[in-house]
Amino acid sequence: MASIDVALATISFKRKIAYKTTWLFSVLFGGWSLLAGLAVWSNLIGDGELGGYDWQSMKAYLIIGFLTSTLAWAGADWEMANRILDGLVAVDLTKPIDFQRARAAEYIGGMAASVPAAVLGTVAAVLIFRPAPPASPLAAALTVLSLLFIFPLAFGINYLSVLACFVTQRYLGIQWARDCFLAFFSGMMVPIALMPVWLQGVAWSLPFVHFTTTPASIYLGRVDALGGLGLIAAEAVWALGLWLGGRLIWNQLVKKVTVHGG
Amino acid sequence: MADTSTPGRSLTARHVGGVYGRSLVAQIRAITEYPADFWVMASAGVMWNVLQLAFLTVLFAAVPDVAGWDYHEMVMLAGLLSVAAGSTALLCDGVWSTGGMILKGEIDYRITRPAPVVVQVATTHIGMQGFGEVGFGLVMVVFGWIGAGLGLAAVPVGILGILCAIVIEGALITVFCAVNFWIKGPMSPFAFMLIDLQNSAMNLPLGLFPAGVRIVTMFVVPVAFVNFVPVAVLTGHLSAWWLIGTPLAAVASVLAAVGIYRLGLRSYDSSGH
Known about the structure:
The structure holds 2 protein chains of 2 kinds. By secondary structure, chain A is mainly alpha-helical. Helices cover 71% and strands 2% of the residues of chain A. Chain A is built from 13 helices and 2 strands, in the order H-H-H-E-E-H-H-H-H-H-H-H-H-H-H. Chain A has helices at residues 3-18, 20-28, 31-45, 55-72, 77-85, 89-92, 99-129, 137-148, 150-163, 172-185, 197-204, 213-219, 225-253, and strands at 49-50, 53-54. In chain A, helix 8 runs parallel beside helix 13 (225-253) and helix 9 packs parallel to helix 13. Chain A is globular. The model of chain A has no long low-confidence stretch (mean pLDDT 86). Chain B contains 12 helices and no strands. Chain B starts with 12 loop residues before the first helix and ends in a 6-residue tail after the last helix. By secondary structure, chain B is mainly alpha-helical. Chain B has one domain.
C-alpha cells in the first residue's frame, strides 16, 4: 500500500470524526435496528425455532448483522457521490492518482472510523443479550476472517452504486435502493433460510449475502470448516469481481463528464 | 440571527403558497430535462417497496401472524408508510439539504428573500424516488385494503389517514433536519435516525415493542400516527377514538417544524464565525 493510500484513508478517517456529535449519534442510533429485530424475532420464535434458528442462535445472528451493517454503512460513499455530482471528478481526472484506488482508500478510512464504536456496541450487545457462542474456536477465527472481507465488498458495492450518479442528479434514492437490497439479500431483514428455494438461489448468487448470512453461518456452525473456507473464497472472488466491474463501468461512464460544456 | 419572516412585509398564506408552488413547478421543469435521472430514481423507489413486500411475503410464509396482525394488514402498514415517505420526497425533499446549507453559509441568501426560509429550502429539490414510492405504496395499500376485507365505506377514513400521514412525515423530517442548526454536520443523522426507526419498527405492529417505545412513537415523536394508528383503526386493532389523534398529531408536528426551524434560524451564525 502506497503512502498516498494511507494519506487519503487518514484524511477520510479524520473527516469522519471531525463532527464528533454527528458521528457519535449516527453510530449510536444504529443500535435501534438491532433492538427492533430482537423484539420481533423474540416474539416470532418464542421457545421454538424458525428456519433452523432458535432464540439463542437468532440473537447471535442479529448481533452479527448489527456489526456488519454498522461497518458496511459507515464508509465515505456520500463524499464519493458528491465528487461526481458537484463535478469535482473533472479535477480528479487531471491528478496523477487512480480515481478508483483513491476513493477506495478514502472509503476504507471512513469505515475504519466506525470500527471502535461498532466493536464496543457488539461487545455491549453480547454482554446484555447473551447470544449463542461460536460453534468452535476455528469457526470464530473464520468468522473474523469473513468479516474482514466486508471492507472491500462494501467499497465495491458502494462504488458501483455511486457511479450511477453520472446519470442522476441526486444520490439519496440510489443509496436507499442499495441499502434496501443489502438489507434484504444479506439476510438482515429476514434470514435467507426462510426464503423460498428460488429466492435463496438469487440471494446466494449476489454479493450481499456475505454481509450477514456468511459470517453468521460460519459462526453458528451451519457450515463446516471447509464450507466456511468456500464462502470466504467466494467473498474474495466477489471483492475482485466488483473491483474489476467498477473499473469497467467507470471507463464507460467517465465519457459523460463534460467540463464547461466542452 | 434571523427570523423566518421578513420585517416590514406580511407573508400571507397565499404569498407563501405561491412561492412554494412556483418553486416546486421549477423543480418539475428541471426534472423533465433529465429523463434518465427520473427513471433511475423512480425505479429505485419502486424497488424499495418491492423488497418490503417480498420481506412480508417471506415472513408470512413461515408464520401465520405477527402479534395478531395478518399479512394484508401488514402490507397496508408498509404501504401507508411508503406513501408518506415518498410524498415527503416529492413535496419537501430540500429540507435534507439544511445541514449542508448551514455549513456552507447558504442560508444567508435565503434569509434576504421575501419568503419563509423553510419553504425556500424545502423546495430546492424533488426526490424523484418518491414517484416510485408513492405509486407502489398506493398499490400496497389497495392490495392490503382488499385483502383485509375493508369496503368502500372506510375510504374517507383512509383518505384522512393518508393526508395526515403525509403532513406528519414531512413535518417530522423537517424538525429532525433542523437539528443541524445546533449540531453541525453535512449530513442529517437525526432525520436518518427517524427514517431508520420507521423502517425498523413502524412496519411492524407496535404491540411487539415495550411500553416505552409505544409511548415515544405515539406521544413524543408521533410516528405511530403516520401509519400504525390509521391502519390499526381501520382493521379494528384500535378503537375509532384513536383516529382523533391523527389530525392532532399533524397539527402538532407542523407547529413543531415551523417553531424549531424558526429557533434554528435565530441561532444561525452563517459559516466561518
